[in-house]
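WARN retry 2 of 3 for item q-0093 after timeout on previous attempt; input resubmitted unchanged.
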Amino acid sequence: MICFDNWNSTLRANCGHYYATPDRSVPSWTGSFLLHQRSGVDVAEIRCLPARIERTRQGILRDEQEHFFLLHQLDGETGIRHAGRETLLRPGEFLLLDSTRTAELNITGRPAAFLSAHLPRALVLERRREMPQAGCKIARQHPLHASLCGLLDAEGAQDGAGYIFELVPLAFAAGAYPGGGSLSSRRHRFRLVRESLELLSTDPQLTVDTLAARTGLSRRQLQREFQENGTSFTDCLARTRLAAVAGKLGHAARQGRRVPIAQVAYSAGFGDISHFNRIFRRHFGCSPRGFLSAQDYSGNLAQDANSLAPLPKTAP
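OK item q-0093 returned
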């Protein structure tokens, strides 16, 4: 067990900019943070006394790499406010967190323990047509509950390496959880635009008109959405593709695999490698090969990209 300051810094180094505050009424606050490799991904085993953990817009802007976090409650209870939903996660239940959305986790009453599987967004969304539903939980009676448990189990997880990227989108499929917020409202419209762009970004021929047809907006309305959110179609598309490349390179590096950088760039939607190299260096401050060499093979998820990248100027 470690003190709060050490636990908090370890949480941020491995999960990104999530800001924790301990329950001040608890004397001698302690917790633990262990990192495992299961089903081909990093899985954090987190134990702590009552605390509050927040994902703010500032934290989102500071993290270059984007993830889905599959939470599995082991002990205690965690109240979670995320993606327009509020829920109480009890032992045995799963919930999907999206690092591109704000979140609030509250552990109250007694100590809690949970697993957090770190899934690069690019690998979860690869070949997907719909966005998994964040903020939704899966209870024991769900037909895929046992399969999710097996993928995070210390004994059998290695047999399912890679399968987790197929199972999670299936378990949290869109349409299974109504009430996620009206996309006709101004607050949620740009979320629809960005997520639609993310799902279509691997197409090297993607245009504003294609995205407009997908979202049901006119070309003029779509361009206004980007402008009002401080970005443009071109810039948002480039950042989405760069995040996908960074996620795939980081995942391969942590598994000790070498991957052809050009192949990863092409799969993310880049059609010109020279152009890709230029904007990658401008965005991350180093070449793609330098970025890959700088990855932390010991398993850290957040520090590798954040130590290289400048603070983004536009909201994700």
